[in-house]
Design a protein that fits this description.
There is one protein chain. By secondary structure, the chain is of the alpha+beta class. The model has no long low-confidence stretch (mean pLDDT 96). Strands 1-2-3-4-5-7-6 form a 7-stranded mixed beta sheet, with helices on both faces. The chain has one domain: Aminopeptidase (3-Layer(aba) Sandwich). The protein is built from 9 helices and 7 strands, in the order βαααββααααβαβαββ.
Length: 201
C-alpha cells in the first residue's frame, strides 16, 4: 500500500534520486549526468527548501518512490530563488561557454541555474501556481499519480490559487497523454513538441 504524506527535509536524497531516475523524459537519466545531483538542484531541491507546504511524497514498503512539488505563486517563487537558491549554486556550477547545441546534460542544467526562464505573465494570469510530479516505475499506474496531484490541488486551492500549470517535454508522450486524460488544458506550445498545460482549481 502506497501512502501520501507531506515531504520532510530528510526526504531530499529520495527526491533527488527520483528526479534523476525519471529525468530523461520519464526514463532513467542516471547514465546521462556526471553529477547526479545537478538535475535535482534545478527541479526538486528548491521546492523542498522554499515551498515545503506544497511538497508531498508517495511512500511504500520500499521507501519514497514518487513526489509532487509545487508553489502557490510562481512569480514570487522565481524571485525567492534568485535571492536564496541560485547564488550558491552559481558559485559551484560555472555558466557554460559551449554553444547550446554542444552542451552536455550537466552543462544544460548549469545554464538553467544561471539563466532560469522567467514566468510567463500570460499563463500566470489564470494559472499562477505550478508543479512537478515524478514517480518511479514501480508506482506508476494504479492511480497514484492522480492521487498525488489531487493532494497538491487541495492544498493549493485552500491557499487561494485559482489555477496551476506545468510544462511537459515533447518526447514525454506518456505524460502528455496522462495530463490530457486527467483534464489538463493546453495553454502554450513549447519547442520540440512540448506544451504548457493548465488546470483550473
Amino acid at each position: 500500500m502506497a501512502l501520501i504524506r507531506s515531504a520532510r527535509p530528510e526526504d531530499r536524497a529520495a527526491l533527488y534520486r527520483i528526479c534523476l531516475e525519471t529525468g530523461d523524459s520519464g526514463a532513467d537519466a542516471t547514465e546521462l549526468y556526471d553529477d547526479p545531483e545537478v538535475i535535482g538542484h534545478v527541479y526538486a531541491g528548491p521546492y523542498l527548501a522554499h515551498a515545503p507546504e506544497f511538497a508531498f511524497v508517495l511512500e511504500d514498503e520500499a521507501g519514497v518512490g514518487g513526489y509532487v512539488i509545487g508553489v502557490l505563486d510562481t512569480a514570487a517563487f522565481h524571485d525567492t530563488l534568485e535571492r536564496h537558491w541560485w547564488p550558491a549554486l552559481r558559485q559551484r556550477y560555472p555558466d557554460p561557454i559551449a554553444p547550446a547545441g554542444e552542451r552536455s546534460r550537466d552543462e544544460v542544467m548549469a545554464h538553467l541555474i544561471h539563466h532560469p526562464p522567467g514566468p510567463d505573465p500570460a499563463v500566470l494570469a489564470d494559472y499562477p501556481s505550478h508543479l512537478h510530479i515524478d514517480l518511479l516505475p514501480r508506482l506508476q499506474g494504479g492511480g497514484h499519480g492522480r492521487r498525488l496531484l489531487m493532494t497538491l490541488f487541495e492544498a493549493l486551492r485552500e491557499a487561494g490559487s485559482p489555477g496551476v500549470h506545468l510544462g511537459v517535454g515533447g518526447r514525454n508522450t506518456n505524460a502528455q497523454a496522462f495530463y490530457r486524460h486527467l483534464g489538463f488544458q493546453p495553454l502554450r506550445t513549447l519547442p520540440g513538441g512540448g506544451a504548457v498545460m493548465g488546470w483550473r482549481l
